[in-house]
Amino acid sequence: MNEVIRKIERLIKDILKEKNIPIEKVLGIGFSLPGTVNEEAMLLEMAPNLKIKNISFKAFDEILEFPVYIENEANAAALAELSLGIAKQMRNLVYVSITKGIGTGIVIQDYLYKGKNKRAGEFGHMTVVADGKQCNCGKKGCWELYASDRALIEEYNKRTNKSTTSLQDIFEALRNDDANAKAVWEEYLNYLAVGIQNIILILDPHYIVIGGEISQYEEILEHLKEKVFNKNNFYNENDIKIMTSTLKGNASILGASLLPLQDLFFIRGKII
Ligand SMILES: [Zn+2]
Question: How close is the Cα of 262 to the center of ligand 1, in Å?
Answer without folding.
Answer: 30
